[in-house]
Amino acid sequence: MKHINWHNVGYILVRELKDQLRDRRTLFIIFVLPLLLYPMLGMGFFQVSQFMRENPTQVLVLGAEQLPESPRLIDGGQFDVDLYGATPDRARLLEVTTEESADGVTAEELATRARRVVEDGDYQAVLLFPPGFADRLTEFRQQLTAAAEASPTAAGDLDVPSAEIIHNSAKEKSQITLARVSGVLDQWSIRLRRDTAESMGVDPVIFERVGAQSIDVAEAGHRDAAVWSKVFPFMLLLWALTGAFYPAVDVCAGEKERGTLETLLCSPAERTEIVWGKLLTVAIFSMATVVFNLASIGVTGALVMRQLPQVGPPPLSVIPIVLVALVPVSLLFSAICLALAAFARSTKEGQYYLMPVLLTTIPLVMLPMAPNVDLNLGNSLIPITGVMLLMRTMIEGDYLAALPYVVPVVAVTLGCCLLALQWAVDQFNSESVLFREGERFQLRLWLRQMLRDREDTPTAFAALFCGLVIILLRFVLGLVYAPPRGANDFLVMAAVTQIATILAPVLLMTVMLTRSPRKTLLLRLPTFGALLAAVFLAVAFHPAVTALNEFVMRVYPLPEDVARALAGMTSGVSNVWFLLLVAAVMPAICEELAYRGFVLSGLRHLGHRWRAIVISSVLFGLGHAIFQQSIVACIIGILIGYLAVKTGSILPGMAYHFVHNSTMLILPQYLSERLGPVLSDDGASSEPLGHVLSLFFDVTVSEPAISRMQPQIAVGYRWPLIVLSLVASGVIVLWLRSRPHQATAEEALQEAIEHESAQPASG
Q1: Residues whose CB falls within 8 Å of the CB of residue 456, separated by 6 or more in sequence, listed in order
Q2: Residue 67 CB coordination number (10 Å)
Q3: What number of other Cβ atoms are within 10 A of residue 531's Cβ?
């Protein structure tokens, strides 16, 4: 790859900036609209606030004639103002209508009447005192008097006879009325107890329930920071994304429509330099959008916050934090939008891509706004989410807590930016993408052409489609299939999943979309050395995989209920051979035919074997239901994919997959039974072998839940054995690397292009 000429990048940057600054629509959206939008929103807020005041709601009281004279509940057309304490003006919010019950009316008839008036909307709620309420109230006072004479403490536990509040939870006004009436009844119940105590000459304190008073130790500035720490990161990402999207569409799809892209491609600048120039242009406009929106909303918000004393203005520390985080975030979104815009045929098509980008980004943006999501190592490794959590923590003032996660957040963000940038470069290097024409889609013609023009192996699109279909089918089957009740049900469900969602779609697509199932599924015999290397690699890599799995579980711990369920699924199996068949043999066959067969063969048409290996491994990881298992499976999939490419056969991958799953199922139990007594404290002190093995193995003894059971012994691996595992695996991989492999036509062409580009220009 040639060295990037930054002078060319600068020329392209200046050219793109001039083109964008000539566009009045771009100037208006970035510079003028923010200055007008937020003041207008502030004005609208004050106008709308006039309609947001609390309005009275209507309450019908049935059986009010049974209420005592003291304490008084209803006074005229409203509840007694003394029941509202320090806010007597809130009594106007409940307009009370009383209706006496006719003689002989039953409780069912009153309830039917109450439901009818609420359903018809005549009243938002009905407070019903059923027949006999006065008698129960008199009985309550007698019990209260007797209990107070015997035990004053027990008297406080007696409950006032309850009334019924009929409301409609489907209507918001009815829910508001329910809350208001419930508060009034609580205060009336307290007053009833106090009046009874006073009539008895007893201290009314004994009838009051024990309560707790909350004391907030947070300072006003910290409370305001907690509010703004959730708002500003969200707004920053939204501004950066929208500010990058429209300029990216214009500098790519817009240039296609104007016919100026061909001139730029004919210039001495390399495609990478063109992408860098356009990327910096889009990033500048993205950052400018954020800065102008931030300034406008800051001025408007300062004025609006004066009318909201409960929410203070944002702290000044927000400004440097936002500006520092702005650079990597804008670069990331600019690279993504640039790659999508390069794929678009026109500006109209490019604008259609905004919604998929938003739908993909919003879950990552909304996740940090959940109350239980905090900044830790696992969350810091999630793109976009880590940036938001880091900003939130720093805005809240916890700089020391945020400092350890700055490096992983920046590394993940820049890594995603480089991947998106490489994707954009590939788009610009493919003229079939840049200059593809619009075509009318007809399903019948497309299916006929797909079946007629089949090749020996599937296309890259068919490979991606197959991987996504498998993920979708597994998700649907998990929803339809009843949760397993035991180990046997779990194994049956796993077998059905392997056959129905993986093997069946792959075989069907292989027959329909390819001409050579043998080449598609890599059904050829490997050399004996390659097969043996796959088995040895699975055994050698096992300690390292176990350490990786433990690390992933520490970073992303499983919920306790899920961990117990998974442990019970495998420990309750009586037939070990059936367990190996379902958990080792079937995945080795079905998953390898799918991901290292059909999917990998199709993705190799992209022209980059490592890209095909990584994408197929990502799909392989996403095919697992548990997130922690998906991470480990993705990494192992890269190793198995490399085996498939270097050997040209599916069998070494199957052998590796079978040995790996078998060792993960059987070896821990075997080591615990055989080496546990030797490596325990007693064994290590009495046998010299225990001292030697303790250098490589670690023993964990957990107390059983039942005292009569034996302690559970688990054997793990220490770092010397893990290092030896990595060294042995590296030696086998180096041996595989030295072996020749058969490249596809696209891979051979791409290697020739890269070799030609790396040669210095003659003359």
Answers
A1: 514, 515, 516, 519, 520
A2: 19
A3: 18
CA pair distance 61, 73, nearest whole angstrom? 11
Q: What is the pTM of this model?
A: 0.77
pLDDT in tens, 44-69: 766 666 666 678 888 888 888 878 77
289: number of Cβ within 10 Å: 24
Q: Any idea which of 135-144, 254-263, 608-617 has the lowest mean pLDDT?
A: 135-144
Of 489, 629, 478, 626, nearest in space to 570 by CA: 489
Q: Which residues contact 190 (CB under 8 A, 6 or more apart)?
A: 208
Got the DSSP string for 620-661?
HHHTSSSHHHHHHHHHHHHHHHHHHHHH--SHHHHHHHHHHH
CB 604 within 8 A of CB 747: yes
Tokens representing 670 are 């075997």
Could you tell me if 56 and 94 are in contact, meaning their C-beta atoms sit under 8 angstroms apart? Answer: yes
List the alpha helices (DSSP H) in 306-353.
318-343, 347-352
* CA dist 312 → 50, 207, 224, 227 (Å): 21, 41, 6, 9
Which DSSP string do the residues of 178-214 spell out, in sequence order? Answer: HHHHHHHHHHHHHHHHHHHHHHHT--GGGGSPP----
Q: In terms of DSSP bridges, do strands 57-62 and 125-128 run parallel, antiparallel, or are they unpaired?
A: parallel
Cβ-proximal residues to 354 (8 Å cutoff; 6+ apart), any chain:
245
Distances from the Cα of 647 to the Cα of 531, 585, 633, 736, angstroms: 9, 21, 21, 8
CA distance 575 to 596: 30
What's the burial of 277, exposed, middle or buried (CB within 10 Å: 0-12/13-18/19+)?
buried
Length of the chain: 763
Label residue 621 by pLDDT band (50, 70, 90): very high
Please state the rounded mean pLDDT for residues 411-440.
79
- Sorted by sequence, the CB contacts under 8 Å of residue 141 that are 6+ apart come out as 196
Distance CA 302, CA 309 (A): 11
DSSP 8-state class, residue 313:
P
* CB of 715 closer than 8 Å to CB of 544: no
* Backbone phi, psi, residue 717, to 5°: -115, 135
Cβ atoms of 248 and 424 closer than 8 Å: no
Mean pLDDT computed over every residue of the chain:
80
DSSP, collapsed to helix, strand or coil, labels residue 426 as: helix
Share of the chain above pLDDT 90, in %: 22
Nearest to 196 by CA among 162, 149, 163: 149
**pLDDT tens across 225-257, in order?**
666 677 778 888 888 888 898 889 888 888 888
Taking the C-alpha atoms of residue 332 and residue 548, their distance in angstroms, rounded to an integer, is 28
Non-local CB neighbours of 15 within 8 Å, separated by 6+ positions: 277
> Taking residues 21-29, what's their average pLDDT?
79
Listing DSSP states for 241-281 in one string gives HHHHHHHHHIIIIIHHHHT-HHHHHTSSS-HHHHHHHHHHH
Give residue 296's identity as a one-letter amino acid code: S
Q: What is the dihedral of CA 624, 629, 630, 631, to 10 degrees?
A: -170
Cis, bond preceding 268 (omega within 30 deg of 0) = no
Which two three-digit tokens encode residue 35? 């200055």
**Residue 180 neighbours by CB distance under 10 Å:** 22
Rounded Cα gap, residues 179 and 102, in angstroms:
28
CB 725 within 8 A of CB 543: yes
Q: Is residue 214 a contact partner of residue 303, using CB atoms and an 8 Å limit? A: no
**Above pLDDT 70, what percent of the chain?**
79
Point out which residues pair with 700 in neighbouring strands: 714
pLDDT of 717: 81
